[in-house]
Amino acid sequence: MMLASTFGVWRAWPARRSLQLCVFRRGFSGSLICSVNNSPNAGTTTHFGYKTVPTESKESLVKDVFSSVASKYDVMNDAMSLGVHRLWKDQFVSLLDPGRRQPVKCLDVAGGTGDIALRILDSARERWADRETSVRLLDINPEMLAEGQKRFKKTMYYNTPQVAFTLGNAQDLPRDSCLNDEYDLYTIAFGIRNCTDIQAVLNEAFRTVRPGGTFACLEFSKVENPVLSQLYETYSFSVIPMLGSILASDRGSYQYLVESIRRFPPQREFASMISQTGFQIGDLHEGEGGAWRDLWGGIASIHIGKKPINALLTMPATGAPAMPPASADLATTWPFLEEGVEHIMMRLHTGVTYSKYMNLYTAVYNYCTSSRLHGSFENSALGSRTGANLMGSDLYNNLTRYFTTHLETQREKSEPIVDQDLLVFYASEWDRFTTGANYINRLFAYLNRHWVKREKDEGRKNVYQVYILALVQWRDRLFYPIQNKDHKLVTALLKMIEKQRNGETIDTGLVKKVIESFVSLGLDDNDQNKAQLDVYQKEFQTPFIDATEKYYTHESATFLQEHSVPEYLKKAEERLREEEDRVERYLHFSTRKTLISKCEDVLIREHSGKMQDDFQNLLDYDKDEDLQRMYSLLARIPEGLDPLRKKFEEHVKKAGLAAIAKLQGEAAGSPGGEVEPKAYVDALLEVHHKNQETVNRSFRGEAGFVASLDRACRDFVNRNAATGTSSTKSPELLAKHADALLRKNNKLSEEGDLEEHLNKVMTLFKYIEDKDVFQTFYTTKLSKRLIHGVSASDESEASMIAKLKEACGFEYTNKLQRMFTDMQLSKDLTDQFKERMEVSHDAAELDVAFSAMVLGTNFWPLNAPAHNFNIPKNILPTYERFQRYYQSKHSGRKLTWLWNYSKNELRTNYLNQKYILMTSSYQMAVLVQYNENDTLSLEELVTATGIPKDLLSQVLAVLVKAKVLINEETDQYDLNPNFKSKKVLPLGQIRVNLNQPIKAEVKQESSDVLKTVDEDRKYVIQATIVRIMKARKVPFTMKNQVLIQEVTSQISTRFAPRIPDIKKAIDTLLEKEYIERADGQRDVFNYVA
User: Is 146 annotated as belonging to a binding site?
Assistant: First the structure.
């Protein structure tokens, strides 16, 4: 008789439980909460913290504790331990060092929020580049397990074979996911003290750990140092419950956690329990070579045990039948084996003695290694095979016949059973059969390793390992015969699924078990350990999808007839979520794509027209939740969102046009009849902001809806009731609004919201088509802010220029930045001029305070007056001195004086009260004439100042309105000797600002800007044409239509060019001989190099 270390192994279990043999069950996974409440515990009590409770109640009480603290569990751990628990867990995993020798398969019990599991995977990956180590995270509490899943969703391990989540009880681990001798490493951290039966937990750990595997426990323990112990007690019972009350609003749960620590066995006692379970540990002391390691003086401890390599799960041998002799033939050997196989297949729950199992295994071994040739090979289904030490054919055939006969009996039992009863029978038999077949497979291990392997290596078909053989027989002898009779197995499944869809509660575990058997029955002939899905797909998935289509077609049509579209959206969303959940609970994951696609087709695509028709109604009434649902549903089908995007674009455009039309109507009744820039911009922004919120909130910022919003905004921003047919009005109003924001004394600048409002300006700016118009107006307004010193701040000006530069590039803002440079150079020039004059002239000669701004002609949008201006003699010496000084520094430059932009301050000497009059140069030229005259006619003032009569009349009108001059006779103006003003400054001086804009100048400014834009566009178009032609390969030829399209494409980011303007530019370049027409072709041009 030969013993092999690969045998299945046993251990004696407590009387409350029958012997459970190690099972490899193909095709099963899942979780089970098993509450141990058998007769030994009935009527007994145990501790729950410091309370005494019935034993059967503790499990539910503990579950309640962790349900209440699950969401705050990690936060509370950090607070209670000041983060030290993380160091303990790091040390715990570091000591285990997973992945050091090879990848490990780990079971993390009471894994909760995943702290240990994640550390194990990270340690294996980071220290040993191991991506094969896997962890099954198990916890009895679904809330805690959900927290762990939430954490893992943020990691690379989620949805990979490296991590799995199981709901289960540490005292009775799920048999389908926690097989005997399955795991290399079993960990439990801060969890075992909460279990009702600690010994039962250790027994289960011993069962699931493979021989040579490791049991590791991190748990609170007993502090031996009296001083530390007293401090720890005080902190535990005073501080921790209080923190639980403050941070988690649950003092009671944290009171229990503290008390549970005190009721847990001390280190030596717990180590003894681990040893008595069967694990090998160190000596019963702390530290190197000892059974445990204390952390922080014993506040916590690490216990590690090894399962012996030769660990056996033993039962006493009771009357084991005598085994055949080593040389027995098949006729003698098979009856002995058949009785053992029958016992395992039908009566496994009664247990199998160790000696009987060994005898069965040895009988198989003896027969397979016999030197005699047994049986009649000629009659073998596998043909004639000979050869010493490979006696397996007859044994394999007998085993096949046994499975056939056995399954025929079970098939006959199934014939009268239907519906759910059939499923219960099938699942129960499948469980029993596959469990037994696993053990039969181990008994016939030698047959598998040698005879079966050789047959397969030689290409023999229809030869399987014993377990696979059992599955093949189940499929052919039981599954197909039941299924072929009116498909009654799948029909029963579909009925149960329909019940669940109708709101009834069903046994999903039963459905899952039956469906997973279909998966297991799909066998790959090339790789028998690999499951195929042909059986599952043909027998279950196809009829299931058909039934799903029929069910939802009827339900959706009926529901829509009786309910509104928003209610249907909720229903469809709910049904899709249910089907997703159905896949997770009991269907194979491969079904998801087909199932969800079919549901989307029936629930969404078939009714997409009705949904889309109701879209406008949802928009009009701001039904955000319904819009979100409609978007989510229609996004699932191809082109489902296209009609929504078009309707949304029209909706936004309509809202924008209506807002401006209303504003224009209100402005029509006001003086001037024009829309105020601020009101105009605010109205546009309000429409944009509201619909931007809709896109972000209801449509999740989807690119198609963003594009629809942009197109609609571009449309109504550039063409609306306020702009009429003009494409320049919007950029003009936006530039004026920006100018108002950037001026001093603007309330927004004081409130610190200026940057936010500038960003809003840029929001509209991106929709402006004629950006060159905005640029020119903005440049003009900026020049005046700089000249008159009324900018809110240099920082705000720089910020706005940076935004424009980012949007349009360096060239767009080059002139703007140069203007700031000129301002600084002018300040330095004025300072130098004053220093020179102070050296070369007496103070009496420098009675006029003077500063000059020298501005580059190419960068400032300023035009000198077309008329003459007689410089008043009061400032003529200063004017001449500066002219000479500047020419001495820059002999090749010419100064053109911009009197229309200059400003002055005059001090009154003819009144009792001293006033400072702030004037324009033209106003100053008029007022200084009254130093020598009390009254002057219009003609006399025209002669004295050189200002044209029309302009001078407007200048005089401002002075008369301010009551500085009196106009009692036609065209006769007198100085007012009784002038008074109430605007008193803090120092007692009275400053009167007379420098107000003249309407003619304002209108002229807009006209000049638009003329400048038109001229600039001509040159831009011409330059673009030349650049495009030069970029062509020799002979630099291009057709007229292609050229026009290319020019339009390149310029459209700056402004929208008109085709007639492009044609004029082409004609101009033809005249200038930059380009020429190709010979004989009027629509083809050549570039003249």
Answer: no
